[in-house]
From TrEMBL, chain A:
One of its GO terms (biological process) is protein N-linked glycosylation via asparagine. This is Oligosaccharyl transferase subunit ost3/OST6. It is found in: Endoplasmic reticulum membrane. The gene is OST3. InterPro entries: OligosaccharylTrfase_OST3/OST6. Residues 1-17 form the signal peptide. It comes from Recurvomyces mirabilis. The chain crosses the membrane at residues 183-205, 212-231, 265-284, 296-317.
Automatic annotation (TrEMBL), chain B:
One of its GO terms (molecular function) is dolichyl-diphosphooligosaccharide-protein glycotransferase activity. Its EC number is 2.4.99.18. Its cofactor is Mn(2+); Mg(2+). It is found in: Endoplasmic reticulum membrane. Keywords: Endoplasmic reticulum, Glycoprotein, Glycosyltransferase, Magnesium, Manganese, Membrane, Metal-binding, Transferase, Transmembrane, Transmembrane helix. Residues 560-610 form the STT3/PglB/AglB core domain. Pathway: Protein modification; protein glycosylation. Catalytic subunit of the oligosaccharyl transferase (OST) complex that catalyzes the initial transfer of a defined glycan (Glc(3)Man(9)GlcNAc(2) in eukaryotes) from the lipid carrier dolichol-pyrophosphate to an asparagine residue within an Asn-X-Ser/Thr consensus motif in nascent polypeptide chains, the first step in protein N-glycosylation. N-glycosylation occurs cotranslationally and the complex associates with the Sec61 complex at the channel-forming translocon complex that mediates protein translocation across the endoplasmic reticulum (ER). This is Dolichyl-diphosphooligosaccharide--protein glycosyltransferase subunit STT3. It comes from the Eukaryota. Residues 740-766 are annotated as: Disordered.
From TrEMBL, chain C:
It comes from Recurvomyces mirabilis. GO terms for molecular function: transferase activity. GO terms for biological process: protein N-linked glycosylation via asparagine. Subunit of the oligosaccharyl transferase (OST) complex that catalyzes the initial transfer of a defined glycan (Glc(3)Man(9)GlcNAc(2) in eukaryotes) from the lipid carrier dolichol-pyrophosphate to an asparagine residue within an Asn-X-Ser/Thr consensus motif in nascent polypeptide chains, the first step in protein N-glycosylation. N-glycosylation occurs cotranslationally and the complex associates with the Sec61 complex at the channel-forming translocon complex that mediates protein translocation across the endoplasmic reticulum (ER). Pathway: Protein modification; protein glycosylation. Its main location: endoplasmic reticulum. The lineage of its organism: Eukaryota, Fungi, Dikarya, Ascomycota, Pezizomycotina. Residues 1-18 form the signal peptide. Component of the oligosaccharyltransferase (OST) complex. This is Dolichyl-diphosphooligosaccharide--protein glycosyltransferase subunit WBP1.
Amino acid sequence: MKVLQALTALLPLGVFGAKKAATGDRFQTYHSKQLSAGGPVKIDDKIYAELTKGPRDYSITVLLTALEARFGCNLCNEFQPEWEMLGKQWAKGDRNAEGRLLFTTLDFLDGKNTFQSLQMQTAPVLLLFPPTTGPNAKPDGAPVRFDFSSGTNKAEPIHSWLSRQLPSIPHPQFVRPINFLKIGVAITAVLGFITFATVAAPYILPVIQNRNLWAAVSLIAVLLFTSGHMFNHIRKVPYVSGDGKGGVSYFAGGFQNQFGLETQIVAAMYGVLSFATISLALKVPRMADARTQQIAVFVWGGVILGMYSFLLSVFRIKNGGYPFWLPPF
Amino acid sequence: MAVTATNSDSPTSIFFKGETGRNTRGLLRLIILCTIAAAAVASRLFSVIRFESIIHEFDPWFNFRATKYLIQHGFYNFWDWFDDRTWHPLGRVTGGTLYPGLMVTSGAIYHFLRFLTLPVDIRNICVLLAPAFSGLTAFATYLLTSEMSDSPSAGLLAACFMGITPGYISRSVAGSYDNEAIAIFLLVFTFYLWIKAVKVGSVMWGGLTALFYGYMVSAWGGYVFITNLIPLHAFVLICMGRFSPRLYVSYTTWYALGTLASMQIPFVGFLPIRSSDHMSALGIFGLIQLVGFTEYIRAQLPSKQFQTLLRAMVLIVFGVAFGGLVLLTVSGTIAPWSGRFYSLWDTGYAKIHIPIIASVSEHQPTAWPAFFFDLNMLIWLFPAGVYMCFRNLRDEQVFVVIYAVLSSYFAGVMVRLMLTLTPIVCVAAAMALSQILDTFLVAEAPAEPSGDATKANGSASSNGSANIKDKLNSAIPESLRSTKAPLVGIYSYLSKSLTAGAVTAYLLLFVLHCTWVTSNAYSSPSVVLASRLPDGSQHIIDDYREAYYWLRQNTKQDAKVMSWWDYGYQIGGMADRPTLVDNNTWNNTHIATVGKAMSSREEVSYPIMRQHEVDYVLVVFGGLLGYSGDDINKFLWMVRIAEGIWPDEVKERDFFTARGEYRVDDEATPTMKNSLMYKMSYYNYNSLFPAGQAQDRVRGSKLPATGPELSTLEEAFTSENWIIRIYKVKDLDNLGRTHQEAGAFGKGNKRKKGGKRRGARVLRVD
Amino acid sequence: MRLRVLGLLVGLLGLVSALSAQGNKLLVVLEEEADKSRYSQFWSSLSDRGFQLTYRSPKDTGLSLFQHGVPAYSHLLLLPTKAKGLGPALTPNLIVDFVNAGSNVLLTLSSEVGIPSAISSLLLELDITLPADRNSLVVDHFNYDTKTAAEDHDILLLPSPKQANNAIKDYFSVDSLVAFPHAVGQVLGNASPLLSSILKAPSTAYTYNPKDDSGDSLEDVFASGNQITLVSAFQARNSARFTVVGSAEALEDKWFDAAVQVPGAGKKSEKTGNKAFAEKVSAWTFKEAGVLKVESVSHYLNEGPQSTLTNSSSALGQANVDLNPTIYRIKNSVHYAIALSEWSGTHWTPFTPAAADSVQLEFSMLSPFHRLNLIPSSQTPTATIFTSTFTLPDQHGIFNFFVEYRRPFLTNVEEKRTVTVRHFAHDEWPRSFVISGAWPWIGGIWVTVAGWVAFVVVWLYSKPAQPKGDLKAQGFRR
């Protein structure tokens, strides 16, 4: 923030200086500013205009972004720190500006006109203006545009992209600073866990070694996976979607897609079925009373029949040509 | 079938008692197993009966070709085979980059039959190999299950499940001559041997396990599954405090011999000691030595402190070893996880880093209908069986649990890994179902309970995690809740008959389902397509073979054919022409080159094709027939893969309209319309239709009124239904003009007078 | 390529009489019979050299370049015509097809008659540009014939053509001045490698249109100086030749034995070399000169028993040599030989490249791994054998022995032999006991084996320890 104030204080002067200065100074001014700011220079319409106007003997990258929360541009906010980092390191990388590359950021608030003039619908957009004069000049000063549509919010791809676009200038290394905090947290967590484990071992051990627990865990895992949970996880399918007329369609049409809720329903069906099987196989023969046993057999048998037939009917929804079915459904 | 099997054990029949009884049962088992094998083979013959004895799909064509080479040139030439008809002009060191198990197996069978003076065509052997081995798989499953469960019926049930379940048939119908054909048998049998080894604890069984493990390694890349599952089993057992000399002997034998065996395969080579995929096995090997040592010491001197010291030492050494492993991996001495394998854990990995892997259809995640489709009712018997394994948790049942959880995860992530899930599903389901049958098919009144149940129950209470007896014994029950009460039995015949009837009905339904699925879904050799005419009669669409035979008969022996890699093996196998890329996707760059040629303008593609000496270009186009698996639909993958290498020359974004749609009609982007693939697909297409009526039946969109122009290629062949289109690459123009200029001149429109050149005059220097 | 071979076959048939390597049927297209007499010497020299001349008028209805889809003539000579086009039988497309079919064309222009637009559009396809206006001609105020063109300066007198550098063989030099009346200057595009100029205008020449008197044509001159080519040669990829002679008159009898004189004191009159020049140009165009042939290509493994063959030139003939194998191994030493012969007009003679030039061999997969100068090692009566011996790269794949010899005024030689270079077979590596570094490991193996055997012996013959059973039990519950 302080940096920003400093900048705004400097701006008119800078612009003024640049107005009558040759392009070399124009570059020098902002490069020094960039160094002092320790990162991309924040610019507005006017500076944008006069920085990007030819002839340029330097190249300039402009990140057009919308950081305000109300624009709700997550990518902008995710990418901003990365951008700062990249600009900082690049500026540090060639301190005496052999590459003659400027990093600037133009926020929507300061650059409405620019955004309009470029007919910008989306943010962020990264523009690179190659030099129009000098050794590695492109004949047309037209900016190159980086494509964020692949969902990039890291600095490395940008770095490689810049290196590709400006092959003949030095490319300072981009190294991601080591996050000591994270490491520290991890270490403490591990140590804490170990101590906890050692202390609480006598109480936890039996729980861990409990068979029912493990049975439950593995059953749940199996049910999850066999009911296509990984598919939801990878394909990011919707949890549930409405059908045309206001209602909710629980089952996605087609063999190759499914809803989140759908898989849960299926998992539940599998669960019920297998639980009924288990009861028939293990519980029922252990019932001392003949009558209750009889009833239990009926109940569980009925449950299996019903569920299975329902399952089949659901499957017929997914796969139209499926010929088989069971009574009630 | 299963029901009779169980009947044969029910005490009702007095003939089945005592010595004779055992024999009769043995005989019955044998007969039943044979019938199961017969059923397994028979249910896989749909495709042969319907179409003909032909190799299916894509990879099998390469295996077939390799097998023929093996037969022709003998083993050693096969071993050193340098294939100069694929991956032109790089060639492929085929002998060193394939799993020879399959070819060698069928080669051995071939020569054996020859030895018996039965001259069988190698093609028929290849076609029928998979069904034959499926019979063996059923048998292996029987053995495995019999080790798992005390019930004599479980094994037979599992066998017949395994025999006919679609999940396995999908990769083993007659004609799908792929590694999996024999690999699944090897998988199951290796596991059986492992279980046996752990039970008996003999070096012999361990050695056998290693032997078949080696065979498995030579047969299928999926051996990594075994390589990690067995150590995991051992590790879990150790953690459960069930380390025993049996485990020690079997594991060490297996690991030492198995690793040596696996390193004999050139393609595997030093991976077992160099890549992370195999490190778990190595680590457990080390750990088990440590544990064995400590156990020995403990046995020698029972001093409390010393034991704790020892345990600490074990832990420390293990930790240090693990750290060292990580360090080595980071430093690069040990290769990191191989891409295919790694993408199983980090499911987003492949899509970003290895688009080729992500592009393969059988590497997609599995939706639940696929599970049900392939396993029908087994899928809900499966958890029940797993649960029952917990009843009395013997070593082998621990194995079942681990296998079940792991493989169901894998199957969830990748469709093709359904294959590894199927065996354990069959085993578990059989255990559950046999439990029911054994309980309900007992004729006597429940005065005296049936034998095995009590035994099971007794064993349940006898062993189990015994080391928690001292503390909190009351708080937590040691055995499963469902089996606390003493076993009584079923009282009324009504419930018995009801349940038995229901189960029988389900089993019959299962059989119906399997037959239906097999005949409808898994029995078409995607080389020949079948479609139903309005009147319901079947119509065979044979464009692929038509085109391939055209190539075979109308082009030079060494005419290079460029196509997308899916068709590489088929072109190599059926058309016998060199290809640039094929389904063995070992060289990403080369594939990307083809992708670039397909997705760029003619001016860009032509030099690439010249450089690679391409004579013909083959594209698959389903627009006329509505055949959705065509190249335009695969096109985006070509673009992505090419973009991975040339991010500035090929951009996926340019193939989408401003609204982000992928279109082929008037709104298609210029990049799309100028791409070679688009031009080749739609060249002359609207000549089929009245003016402006051209219609793409796959994309369901109307095409531009004027079709694309081709200048550097000329149409050579288009199959009956336009599925395959082959283009010839023109030679350079004789007068040194560009093809566009030549074409323009041929059409008779004059070039602008060079005399009135604008701009600075270029002087000629000699 | 195939076309060229075909052309050579035709040539061998026609060899009996003709001097051309390709064939002796020559079609001369000229408008009136009257013109014919003007070129009588040229005709006679051609027919002396064994050509069967057929004279046709462009208006002739029976005229056709093709017969049953193949060229009816192997050579075509076009004399200037007044008509705008050359008629239906000689449209530019047909002529291009004629050339693509491997036949040769000698086209003569004249500024007197004017240039048909069809011709200029045809030449544009060859990247040869003619002046925009039909009648413009080349003028030089320093090298003109003072006897006939004292006023107009439009009859150029040129020294004998010589090649710029000595990497190009010379086929056109004559020993006296060449007279070039009313020449049409051509400008060759600098893109096409197929073009080369036989005769250039002197540096003081420029194009000028006598028809328009407003001197604005002098404002921007179509071309000037050395950029003007008076006789240009085009050789297509299939080695079909297309020569453009800027002045038809130069071939006329009157210039064959005219005496001319360049301006300037002390210059005396001398005889023109037109006759010789015309002969040389026609000879080259009709494939009597500068025709190459590959007599044989051979390559073989230069190792083991065959390594001795390299120095003996007759290796190719020997029986025990595995000649031209389809597969080699990486790092093999390979011997390659190609026999080139040149057509001397009567028979095939050994070919010797120009002084500063040499035949090159590429061993390439996608890009050349080797590019070697071939050494002329020996000669047969009909051919020179160029050879090279080299080691294959350490890269397996499908490679080409590729000789691509394209030089101005020489037919193209393009010889591609594809071979496979395979990897080491499993038994071609050195055995483990040969590698000294492996001895510790081998030793380790045997030590282990011995140790194991010893252990077994000790175990068997020692008292059994206490049964392991209870140990297991302890291990089991602790």
